[in-house]
Design goal:
Layout (H helix, E strand, L loop, with lengths): L4 H10 L8 H12 L5 H16 L8 H15 L3 E2 L12 H7 L1 E2 L1 H14 L4 E4 L6 E4 L7 E3 L5 E3 L1 H12 L15 H18 L3 H14 L4 H13 L3 H14 L6 H10 L3
Parallel strand pairs: 1-2
Antiparallel strand pairs: 3-4, 5-6
Helix pairs in contact: 1-2, 2-8, 3-6, 8-9, 9-10, 10-11, 11-12
Length: about 270
């Protein structure tokens, strides 16, 4: 694989133990493939500056709900950050530099801005991968409150998460404990890339779709569905030797896959 410098930086960042991965840096390296002239330091400094400005207005004592209130006032009232509900699938919503510049994003990238500022003011928060929506919560034992960075930092409780799921899926959804589990840094980055994958697939930009899948596989090399998808993209792009390798690998690891007949048909078409 011929890595760009942005890809190399991304790869180096994610080689560390998960807890040491710098999410903001890794997210900016994702964006750097789209914007080769992007200077990550400029945006890391912007997050530092935001954190310093929040620090100056923090209440005493620093109770979690009061810290959240201060963060919300700064990000949404003072700076005007907002969820881009009118053009949700604009790829710019997934690039941290664009989110900072435009003050606009989707749940996971607005959550990233929120997390990064909270981390800098020593108020640790973690990501929560609710299906169809992304939340954050204070990393405090026995404190079951959640923050919706997409909706102006709305504070939610477990019952609210249940209601949000029912609204999104337009039918009753059983709130399983794993829906409110903390995501790892690698899972966080994979979710950003998965958003880009489906945006570019919808736009029929197969090259950029492939680029997203390649980076997901750097995070999770054994993700068989991503290996399959990479093989299918190689096939569509006419890179048959690479397609054969991935699709054969997929079938060998998941021989009972629902799409095994279709995959085998493609391999036969390619003479394998």
């Amino acid at each position: 694989m011929n890595f760009s410098s942005a890809r190399q930086y991304f790869y180096q960042e994610i080689q560390q133990p998960d807890e040491y991965i710098n999410l903001a840096k890794a997210a900016l390296y994702i964006a750097q493939e789209e914007y080769p002239n992007l200077d990550p330091e400029e945006y890391l400094n912007a997050l530092d500056t935001m954190a310093q400005e929040v620090q100056e207005r923090l209440p005493t004592p620093r109770y979690p709900l009061r810290l959240i209130q201060s963060l919300n006032q700064y990000l949404y009232d003072d700076l005007g950050f907002t969820g881009n509900s009118s053009n949700y699938y604009d790829p710019r919503n997934s690039f941290l530099n664009d989110v900072i510049d435009r003050r606009m994003g989707i749940p996971i990238t607005l959550a990233l801005v929120y997390l990064e500022i909270a981390h800098r003011i020593e108020f640790p928060m973690v990501g929560i991968g609710l299906p169809g929506h992304f939340l954050i919560r204070p990393d405090i034992p026995d404190m079951e409150i959640f923050v919706d960075a997409f909706n102006r930092g709305e504070v939610m409780f477990t019952e609210d998460c249940q209601e949000r799921l029912t609204q999104m899926f337009q039918q009753p959804v059983n709130l399983k404990p794993e829906f409110l589990a903390t995501v790892s840094n690698r899972q966080f980055l994979a979710r950003i890339l998965t958003n880009l994958k489906y945006i570019y697939l919808k736009q029929q930009d197969l090259g950029k779709t492939l680029s997203a899948v390649e980076r997901i596989l750097l995070l999770f090399p054994a993700a068989m569905l991503e290996i399959r998808d990479r093989g299918l993209l190689y096939y569509q792009l006419g890179h048959y030797p690479q397609a054969v390798t991935d699709l054969q690998n997929y079938l060998s690891k998941v021989p009972d896959a629902e799409d095994a007949v279709v995959i085998q048909r493609l391999l036969t078409e390619m003479g394998k």
